[in-house]
Amino acid sequence: MSTIDLQALIPNNVHLGENRQLQRALEHWQPAFLNWWDEMGPSDFKAKEVYLRTAVGVDASGWASYGYTPMPDYRWGIFLADKEEGRKIGFGDHMGEDVWQDVPGEYRSTFRRLIVTQGDTEPASVEQQRLLGHTAPSLYDLRNLFQVNVEEGRHLWAMVYLLHAHFGRDGREEAEELLMRHSGDADKPRILGTFNEPMDNWLSFFMFTYFTDRDGKFQLKSFAESAFDPLARTTRFMLTEEAHHMFVGETGVGRVIKRTLEVMKELDTDDVATLRKAGVIDLPTIQKFMNFWFTSSLDLFGSEASSNAANYFSNGIKGRPDEAKFADHLELETEMSIVVPDGQGGFKNETISTRNGMNEITRLEYVKDCNVGVTRWNMGIKRAGVDFELTLPSTRFRREVGAWAGNFTDPQGNPISAADFEARKDQWLPTAADTAFVKSLMNRVTEPGKMAAWIAPPDRGINANPLEYEYVKL
Ligand code: BYC
Fold it and tell me: Is the Cβ atom of 127 under 6 angstroms away from ligand 1?
């Protein structure tokens, strides 16, 4: 097991103290990070004590400690999962060779670009969520928001460590740049689309942590297979923290639905206007928010057919999530089928090499995983005796990246004209009025144990504490 230095300026299990140059470089980046947190992180809660989980090791049985801390004092550390002695590359053209402890020169720029892309999403999400603390529906939710935020900060540290440790001066420059781009900035936006979307209400936050953090899960799983062992070990540990983020999303959306169902029963109605007047979010609006965040997250997997993705796989850079469960780890001559527009207003099957289809394979695994929570939400709706089913739209709907970008379909994936899409999009996606309504419900609740009227309480508190626990000392 690795030794953990928790007393160091930067807590770590990578023997930072033995590499003075690297330590100095990271200690130089640290004030820039704290400055970024101060300017772009959660606004106005700096001095408040928050009941937070902090990573203090990588042992599955006890990797975190819980306690009150003001967020700027959070101990952001560098933790890699333990080294697996004798680990071999598990896929692609280097299959069976020893994994790499450093980046081979020929793959350096590709690794750097991917690590930067991954790193960019972490502070981006904190920036997107910057103002949400002011409208938290409970102290429990406020604490969860801040937990997610500090851990995204730690994930940024994880990528910055790799850039500093393995990419020399270029890496240090990229680490600086990670603090310079900002979500939604007209001149220097974040790299990937979803991370520039505004997030000004908690329904969007829950959808984001359900759907977009789940893209994170799948991308991290792909990196966890990488031949570059420090990347694989870093991302394996990040996945441990990521699980809570998706829990926040799944239970968050579930609690919104539960509360709506309660009011539907009380008032014996499914009339949207009546429910909105009663202060809950109607199910069709929840479906629209789901359509938006799910489709935006689908784009994060890249094009259906991608020679980039084929190269990542061939070269051992990125595998498929849970690569071991696939029968063929070379996919040298194999082919697969994807659905693309036929150029005449319809669609057709196209055969591509499996290596070129890696993004699509990962995306389809992601869709399956997304459906697990949707099924659970639907079970709640069915149990309440309400005739309504939430459904994930087709992977062809509202795409801005890949084969379907610039093509219009309905949520079932049937091609339609641009004019038809324009005429019907308000039925499928949140309108300005829908968002304004959801925002109108966002009033802050600060009494321990109390919830805003549009959301049901969670089943239990955090770390076996009661719901009434003072999760944030305001
Ligand atoms: N928006 O060949 P293609 C997370 C670019 S989330 C804008 O299909 P490729 C988290 C693409 O970069 C996980 N641009 O792409 C969640 C490429 O540009 P260049 C984040 C896009 O390379 C919540 C070009 O289009 N991690 O951790 O096969 C909170 C050609 O595309 C988009 C990663 O993404 C888009 N949506 O695959 C906090 C992993 N999609 O290079 C955190 C690292 C594509 O030609 N990234 N493009 O200039 C990757 O593995 C790959 O870059 C992608 C794209 C899977 C994103």
Answer: no
